[in-house]
Structure formats: structure tokens, C-alpha cells
Amino acid sequence: MIKVYVNGKETQIEDGITVASLISNLKANVRYAAVELNLNIVDRSQYDSVGLKEGDKVEIILPVGGGQGGSLVIVESPAKAKTIEKFLGKGYIVRSSMGHVIDLPMRKMGVDIENDFKPTYVVISKKKKLLSELKAEAKDKDTIYIATDPDREGEAIGWHLAGHLGKNKEVKRVVFHEITKKAILEAFDNPAEIDIKLVNAQQARRVLDRIVGYSLSPLLWKKITRGLSAGRVQSVAVKLIVDREREIQAFVPQEYWELEAELKKKKDKALPSGDRKACPEGKKSFFAQLDKINDAKAEVKDKATSDKIVADLSGAKYKVKDIKESEKKLNPQAPFTTSKMQQEAFNKLHFRAGKTMRIAQQLYEGLDIGTEGTVGLITYMRTDSVKVAFSAIEEARFYIKDKFGKDYLPPEANVYKSKKAAQEAHEAIRPSSVAREPEAIKQYLTQDQYKLYKLIWAKFIASQMKPAVMSVVSIDIEAGPSSGGPGVYIFRASGSTLIFPGFKAAHDDDEEEKDKKKAYIPKLVIGEAVDLVKLDPTQHFTKPPPRFTDASLVKALEEDGIGRPSTYAPTIETIVARYYVRREGAALWPTELGTVVNGLLTQSFPVIIDEEFTAKMEEELDEIEEGKVEWTQALKDFYEPFSKWLSKAQVEMKDVKKDVEELDEVCEKCGRKMIIKWGRRGRFKSCSGFPECKNAKPLVTTGIKCPESGCDGELVERRSRRGAFYGCSRFPTCRHVENKPRAPAGDKEQTA
Questions:
Q1: Is 579 a residue of the active site?
Q2: Residue 399 in contact with residue 431, Cβ under 8 Å?
Q3: pLDDT digits 0-9 by tens, 587-599
Q4: CATH of the domain at 157
Q5: Catalytic residue among 32, 318, 364, 380
């Protein structure tokens, strides 16, 4: 028998048949005749004469479906279209929709709330020509394949296109999670139908966001200024940042002291300086922190207490009281989900979330890597699943055994559990083939593409390796007062040594191992005396919670169940673009405008921008996707209380627009008074004669927080007849003024 592979599926035929006869038989049984052959042994010139024999391998690639008119394949992007068309070959025309073609109208809500929230969909104006071109392409095609992304949004794009292009046509949905030849052919060999449950989940999200946005935004225009916007997810993200800023402003630092003993073995010579920099790993000194006083946790709250301890220990004897040694296993982490990729790319590569997703999309859609041509390098990049295909696991295990050795390969594949509500139809983000080592294809990638691909590749390889093993030692050093009076002080020295790298040979997840002082612990025994080189007390103050970064905000959104993989990066980009949040280095700060908008929304719509409520809505969208909840019913359940809050807010929400502050400054154009008003980017100076006089100036902000206790305003420049001075942006609520703003001493940015 001869093994024949048709689109990757194995079948068997009798010996002796010629290739020409085989092709003829295939043509008689498929709708489309084009056949591409990839034969290991048989030469094309011998197709008519040489009979196949046992052991010969024949691989045949048949375009699936399609009649004499061929097939039209629709994807979202030109890059994706180019890659896929190469794999499909003759008989297939692959075109890009360039994203959404049909959507809700731009300038009105487009939702009939009284008629079961029926949406009114229209062709996006700039896509009308494109849709006409797609219709022309589809006219003489027998089959239309929807090959949009494998998520709710991709399903909805495909559903809309099928409705416009698929009349009297056979429409099929093909789903794949990587853009490789094998994955594409398997998908086209197993087409399905458009999943209406996925479509309904996306419709519910789109309508829900439209109702919230088109209801709250005009309210903000009325109460603050035109051009502002609010959104179901973006407003919660701003709230997280504003709430964190309030925590920081309300934080009262508490003083505390740490005492560190620099010690050495009796037989070792003291280092001349006692300086830590003179004591790198492998030298004679080691360091121990004060841990306990009379068996109670050491709490040194002020200098007086610290000085007393130093005095007590003047001339004290130090000896080893206890030694604990153990081995600690560090397990590898799961391969990347979208949020984890964004977090690690931010922390290690310093990529913002939006940049990470743009590069990941390039890697997914396909890049030209030389002899292989254009191929997708990673799986789909919007996912909350850590599931991995069996074939990919097997490939990784083979690679690990070959490159690292069998000692690094666990007896069975590592299996990871996805979080609740993860879309298990998706895979984790991984390389489409581990054989494409980052260094081997580096020359074909941009620097940023290479960095992200290497991170994804290494994370996946590490996820299928054995744990790392650390040797951990903890030594308690007892010290007593020289006077012999009461009081026993315990200093603790801790260190760890890597004894088996395991997964760390491929990818090190640990960002904390930066303090080299803990690396050296000498060999000691219980009861052994050690010498004190230096006792070093240091003053510290507790720090407020850190400001959010892209990474920590994505983590918070995911942990709170707010948004989904496709929304994290766009949410951050939106709130920055709308001046609700500003970037200072890595940190995300709320602007004055963002703080005011958040305050009004929190007061009038406490439930809508509540983290738990938003997470519950995400769960309902998941249930719509699973077919457990009707999408129109979910919208009804939301809209009934929302409409009541909206009606109340129309009347009761504070009208910030009326809080006009008159300045002593005179308009140089018309002589009238200048005032402070609200605009889309916050407050600004405007002539009180507007609209007759359109003179406007920026309100100069200092970035310095108002020093008044409990105030979250910042100092801004103002002018009077006597010149410039600085007042609180919260005027008239806060009336703090000063002649020259002073930056808080030691104010160093903390981020997480």
C-alpha cells in the first residue's frame, strides 16, 4: 500500500498506480481541478509511466470547494491576504475588508431601544467603494470563504460581509489560529458556518457601548464642555487611575529604620572599607538584617530606638543560632495570554501595550523570512487561553530534548489551566513553529519584531521545561548587649543559589534577583562565632501605592474582569488620547480633566463605572457567546436602571461649565477680563468676550501637587495686577496660593 496525503489527511491506495492516473481519479471526484503535487521520489517527467510502489510518499494539495468560477476569500488586512493567498494557490482570490465595512452610524445612536434594541447598520462611508469592489469580485464566484479573525469581532465582520456578498452564494466560515500552510489548508478542508452566538455577543457589546457612549458623552458636553466622551470600559480605567492618585495624595509616610550587620567569619580577614561595593559575591563579608528582638518581630520606628539598639550592641558577641537549608522548585509559567504578553513586553522590552499589539499583529499576519517566503510566525495574539495544540507541545518537547538535553524535559507535557471564562477555542500565544529560532530569522525582522518574537518563543519553550531548582539558606545570627543585660537580637542572612536552571535556561521570568548581596553566604555551623565588621542603621519611609503603568493597569483590568484581550491596549490609548490621563515616564497620571469627569460620573452613575458591575457585564457577554443568555434580554436588564440614572443626572449632575473663574489678567486684544474655562484638554484662559473675541491661552500648569492636606489639585500659574502667582487648580474649593511653587523634597516617581 502507498500512503497518500491529501491536504494533510492520510489515505492509502494500491501499489502500481501512476501519478497521472492518480491525478485523473482525483479530478473526477473534486469540484475544482487544480492540483499541486509535492512528491518525494517520483520525477514529473515520469508521471505517465512510473508506477508508485510501497514506501513512496505522495503529498497532494487540493484547493477545497469552488467550482469553475473559483472562490473568494475575505480577511481583514492586506498583509494577511497576501500570506493566505500564497498558501491556497490557483482558484482562490483573497481580498481584504480593511477591518469593519458595516457598523452603526457615526452621527446618531443607531439603536432602536423600543424595538428590542434593534441596531441600524450602515456601510461605513469610506468603505463604500471597497464593498462595491468586493461585490464585483464575488459575482462570478461559487463560494465565499469568511476567513476573518477567530474572535467575536472577526465573526461579526464576517457576518456583515456574508449578508452583503453571499446572496445566492455558498458562504463558509474558516477558522485558524496561525497563518501557516498546514493550518490554512486544514481550515479550508474543514469549513464551518458563521457562529451566530459569537455574532450576538459582539452585537450586544457594540450596542451596549453605543448606548453608554451616546448617552453619557452629550451629558458631559452639557455639564463641562463639548467634545468629551465617556465609555463603559474607558471610564472604569480612568476611575482606577484617579482612585490610585487619591490614595497616593492621602498617604501619610511612616518612618521606620532597618539595621544591617556586615559580618565575617572569624578566620577571614576584614575588608578595608566595609563598603558593600568592596564585597561582591565570593568575598569575605556577608550581610544580615535585624529580624527579631526578644523573639518578637523587630519594629524600629524612629532614630531614638535605632540608636538604643546600636548602643546595646556596642561590643556585642555574634554567633550562629540556627541554619535552615532547603531546595526550592520554581515552576515555569504558562505561555502568554494577551495581557501577560503586554505586561512582560512592557517590563522587559519597555513596549507600551499598543505597540506590543501592533508588532504582534505583524508577526501573526505573516512576514517574509527568506526561503520559506511569507509565513505567520505566531498564533493569534488576542487570547485569554493558555491551551496549546498537542502538535505544538510535541514539537516543543522534541526541541527541548534535542537542544537542552533530556534532563530539561519533564516526563509528561506541562499542562496549564486557563482562568474562568477564557475562550478555550483559542490557543495561547506561541510561535507557529519552534524550529524558527529567533536568531535564525533575525535578519528578516525589524529590531522590535525580533525582540517580541524572541520573548514569545522563549516563553513558550520555557513553559514545557522542567522547574528550576534553587538551594535556599537562611541563617539566624544571635547578638546580645555587651552589658549582659536583657535583650536578644536576631539578625537573619538569606541567600539562594541556582543548582539546576531548568526552564531558566530558555527564559527567566524572575525580575527580582537584582540584589547581589544575598548571593554570598559562607559555610557556617550552629554555635560558630562571627565578627561584626559594621552595623549600618538606615532610615526609611513607607511609600504610597505606585502609580499605574501600562503593564500594571492591564493586570488590574484583567484581574477585575474588565474588558477582554482585544480591549486592553485600545482602552489605554483612548484615555491618553482624550486627555483624561497623561504619561510621565512610565507612569499614568490622571489629568485635572480626567479627575473632574470621573468625579461627575462616579457621583451620578456609581454602578455603571463600578469595577464589579463592569466585570459582571463581561460575564454576561460570555454567556451570550455560550448561548446561555439572549443578547436582547441582557441589554434590557442593563438599560432599565441606566435610563433612570441618566434622567436623574440630566437634572442633578453639577454644571461645571458655570464654574467660571475671573482673572485679573486683561485680554490684550479687546481689553476685557480673561477667565478660566473648560475645554477638551482641560482648563484654559479665554477672553470673557467670547465669541466676539476668540483670544485663548493655555493655563500654565506646574505638575506640582497642591500642598494642602487632602487636596488632589495641582499648582497652576495665575496672574494679577501684581504679576504671576501660583494657585490650586481646585479653586474655589481650595484657595491655596503661593508666589513660587516648590517641588516636594525627595519626590521620586514610584510605578508598578
A1: no
A2: no
A3: 999 988 999 999 9
A4: 3.40.50.140
A5: 380
